[in-house]
Amino acid sequence: MNKKGLVYFQDSLAGVLIETDEGYKFTYHPNYLQNPQAKPVSLTLPLSPGDYESKVLFPFFDGLIPEGWLLDLATTHWKVKSNDRFELLLLTCRDSIGAVTVVPEID
Hints:
- The chain is about 25% helix and about 25% strand.
- It has helices spanning about 30-35, 60, 70-80, 85-90, and strands spanning about 5-10, 10-20, 25-30, 50-55, 100-105.
- It is globular and about 40 Å long.
């Protein structure tokens, strides 16, 4: 089963990040792309209607995950392995400091 995260830029749903058997896929939401004020979530993921695919978690999203003692606290609290980067992203990036947040998609 694929895990999904909804990616928000400020308060707008910007796209969906999916963990697949082959790696990861990020796709901008069509409504977000139609907004003339839309900005890319990262310079490495410019606005585009196509899918971005990677065998590893995109460096931009990986960079949102806490490090050091905060990572230790998160892995202990949620009992998640520190190498499960996607799960850590979904658990720790709901209320990020920057403009981008990632929340788990609930089916």
